[in-house]
Amino acid sequence: MAASPPADQATSSTLYFGPWYRRSPFFEKTLAAGCSAYDIYNHMYLPGYYADPIEEYWHLLNAVTVWDVSVERIVEITGPDASTFVNTLTCRDLTRCAVGQGKYVLITAEDGGIVNDPVLLRVEANRWWLALADSDAGLWSRGVAVHSGLDVTVREPEIYPIQVQGPRSKDVLRTLFGDAVLDIKYYWTLTTELDGIPVVISRTGWTGEVGYEIYLRDPSRGGDLWDRVMEAGKPHDIRAIAPCEARRIEAGIFNYGSDMTIANNPFEIMGLERLVEPQAADYIGKAALEEIRVRGVSRKLVGVEVEGDALSFEIAERRPALHHGEQVGQITDLIWSPRLRRNIGYVWVPFELSAAGTPLEIIARDGSRWAARTAAIPFLDAKKDVPKS
After folding, report:
1. How far apart (Å, rounded) are the C-alpha atoms in residues 48 and 37?
2. Are strands 238-240 and 64-68 parallel, antiparallel or unpaired?
3. Fewer CB within 10 A of the terminal residue: the chain, N end or C end?
4. What is the reported pTM?
5. In the chain, where does DSSP find H-type helix?
6. Above 60 in pLDDT, residue 382?
7. What 3-state class would DSSP assign to 250?
8. Helix 82-89 vs helix 137-146: crossing angle, to nearest 10
């Protein structure tokens, strides 16, 4: 996802939407809900600003929110060899992924680099969905398929997700779909419909809170689905918000393209080492990653805590990080956490400085220096008890 802009940069009353970027089936509804700034993500418009991000943060934690995340473009893989093919794309062992289950996966390049970090859903025995972060991983998958010799079809179907996130999201989904949603386990799915609107519901989200994603399978019904969600959420004070950067960083969720790119491998990023699973499949990048596993890495992306007053907006740029006066790395994200009451984010540092508590200094845009220290991630709820509850 992309960052919300600073409040003082999100007050323009003039928006121009060109035809060269795609609009979601919920686009007009987001405008009506008060969205005043959009980002570009996967060649689509992503709602980036409705209101004060701090206010939206607390609403997410205390009530329920809805996000248009149609920018999570879906790559669908079908055919007799679909399961074999998907196993070649990722370092996760998908032989243990049941029909109806989902997983957070890494698509890897031949050198072990991360092509994308999508949520993968196995919606049918031979139908797999990749809900992409911002990249052209769909074209990557098509290219791999052409030369795979496997009987698979790779395409981008007209499927558009929205997220319903927050502690009251269960109440909203139960009103819409009945008690069946209460049986959806974390990272599992339910294929169903709502008044003839075909959807797939997954127990996933970009927040670390209790939440769901509703994948719309008929784009002509986008307005209908949005209205039904808002109607069901009215008793629970539902509101549309932009992606909540502070909450995703607290939860140790990464933003592909800013925190990591294809130049990075999973062993360089705290917490992603676990996704390089021992398996029989000869996936792309396996040899390189097993070599890196033995050799080790020279740098690491870890958490960072910065002392001082609350930042008024997210710093989503690579600012220098110093140790004993020498530049040793860069931050990728930095934002105020209202709950933790400190500025938190991610920083690239040499491996030998990656242990939690290492003192750093961050160079601000105006040249001033902020005292900082490395930290473990996630910053809270390491066992994901909240989203699983």
Report:
1. 5
2. parallel
3. C
4. 0.94
5. 27-32, 53-62, 82-89, 137-146, 169-177, 222-233, 245-250, 286-295, 385-388
6. yes
7. helix
8. 120
